[in-house]
């Protein structure tokens, strides 16, 4: 942030324009002057403030005095010193404008009036919006194409709610350059302390917003101080006049020359041999010979030529309107986008945006709007209003009121087909859209896309496509997304071992350890399952297999939802364990073997199963009177006597295999 | 060579206009470009040619002939259209012509309504055009300053200034119901100076009336009116004096005031434009008829 970029002494004796002119070329002829004038660039600006702030006077003076600059230049060109005649005139500059006030009195709605003036450095387009009624809609309309905003503050009033509101909207529109014009300095005796206090107040408020280039100028539009010529009234101010600033602010670098986005607007087919794709470059640079990719087809080709009426170009950049021909016959139509294959925008139909409601009719939920973004038109619906923003207080509220005229909200939108976008903050052209009412055809709302959240994580209502998904039993939340959220992969750790080998102790100790580390786990323990889900099954080989099959399916469901299952089952047969692995999915299944022999188990078991077997009341006990197949290739072998170490070796196992936490 | 990513203001305005013209060609079924023979139209037609090069302009041009245009305008129109191979429709109000409607006999208000506004609406309805380009600019007149680039008209071609669609970025809402239409102003953001600079830069042919020359001039209510044919009442014609004048705007000759000027080259015109403080509309007689007259005429369907 800076306010006085051009520190320099003020020489009030000589018109600065003549001075500048003479410096460039004292002997240049009229043709050269005109040639140079045709090459000047364009600055679009927004003026915000109320009539009372002296806005009309300021604009009137800029419009009127810019003509005088030309007169001066042309006069000096003709080596003719008739440069008098302007001084001493008392002109009501506000009257030079076609009075917004008069029109308002006549009941004519004014939202934005465009004003134009030029100097020989720049052409200026002013979008002039009244500060009071319907300010949001007006400012948004006027400011959407502005490079710069002039915010007027009345020096005798200071920073008002209105100033904050205007600043918020300017920031919302992504305007990078803000000039705070502290007007009516003559009314406060040109006092520096008053100016400084206003700057301080404003700065304090603006630090919460993102305005990369901020300037402060003390001026008096009425007296002409610091409007065109620097003033002698405020020797303490060493910066430029407002016109000098407008002429010199660097705006070309605001454009995005990096990400090629070429929305195809029109397919030009004047003959059998020529097939060109016309459009205006939204961002980035396209060169002859560039490898490009068409969206949505993702087919690639090479730029064969860049055609214009005035001949072919080697390269083109924003905001040029050109026609591109390609070397291959790939299918491209209006609404498609050409990009560089290594730099692709987001291609989604579900996205978040800041929406400004522009329609007298409030938002009706379930309306299927038309959404128009670049040259693309499709249907869209507002899924959710996440919160509304009060432009005066900047407070967010999430009451479920329908959106009304001039209200701003953060919303989630679903389009019926994917659109190609970048966040508005990165790309004004591809990050903006309008919503058109399907019945009235009004432009009901305008939006600026935000991409802070992944499309899959956005809240949504159920779409037709979703219904098909659900009908076939697929979750709408992708497994990968869950795993990213949980920071783990959904897998099954299957612990096998004899009864009494300490599986249960391990599994619960492990569960607690992983819980503390933040993992999401579910324990499936043989005794729990047997007392419920598998209660009708006994210990015969067939029932044992059925019992384990049920558990494997539960594991699979949980794993798909990103959960780690910790299973503790004797599961004595190698071939059944192989089947389990197949059900769960080999990739998700790890076999952990609790290595303890029957004697250890007998002495460490906490129940009387082995005693009852000895007494002959139960049979088919693995390792005793039924086989227990020691795993041939367990993923991990654990020992019951080393509970702490076992837990830690499982934790490192999860880490090594990139199961939890994810790398 | 060092690559430059700077685009001059004229090239930026050109790129914007081409974008607008293509957008209309893509979104509407049956657009037309209104061609008035004036400097703004000439620039607009050149922009259309640029938009579709190397192809031809994919829609027709239409001239609404009030029957009272300067003779030099009609000659220029016919020669230039032929040379360029334009698809040019000329429409006039046959009923009005039969009844001999003209500014001297019926007054400017009636004449403008019947021979311009009504003739335009007839032409648009006859050919079922759903979009019509006009060469109006926002700096011309105060009711234009707030006009949209895509300006919606209802089924009776009327404009409701209170009910304009918000227009943001370069996204244009082209949705209309059957019978409704859009007037499109691709050179909205151009000033009179820009137009002249562009004509100079692009060598666009214009009607010679724009250049200063000795012409037979009668002063009527403070307007410098040129004697173009016998239809001007004789008592007025008698007062004609040769004066060095040029025209800033062109229309029906009895309703178009000349300005005193010695700008007989494009360079001198540009120079004049850089310093002139008066609006070019002050040379249009019809605008002074009634208060807020342009706004009123626009509501009724005038461009």
Report on the structure:
The complex is a heterodimer of chains A (663) and B (303). With 663 residues, chain A is of the alpha/beta class. Helices cover 29% and strands 24% of the residues of chain A. In chain A, the strands form 5 sheets. A 7-stranded antiparallel sheet of chain A has the order 7-15-11-12-14-9-8, with no helix packed on it. Chain A has a 6-stranded mixed sheet with strand order 2-3-1-4-5-6, sandwiched between helices. With 303 residues, chain B is an alpha/beta fold. Chain B is built from 9 helices and 10 strands. Chain B has helices at residues 9-27, 39-52, 71-84, 94-98, 103-126, 192-202, 234-237, 266-275, 293-300, and strands at residues 31-34, 61-64, 88-91, 131-133, 150-153, 181-184, 213-220, 223-226, 241-246, 259-260. In chain B, the strands form 2 sheets. Chain B has a 6-stranded mixed sheet with strand order 3-2-1-4-6-5, with helices on both faces. Chain B is globular, with a radius of gyration of 19 Å. Chain B starts with 8 loop residues before the first helix and ends with a helix. Chains A and B meet through helix 2, helix 3, strand 2, strand 3 and helix 6 of A and helix 1, helix 2, helix 6 and helix 8 of B.
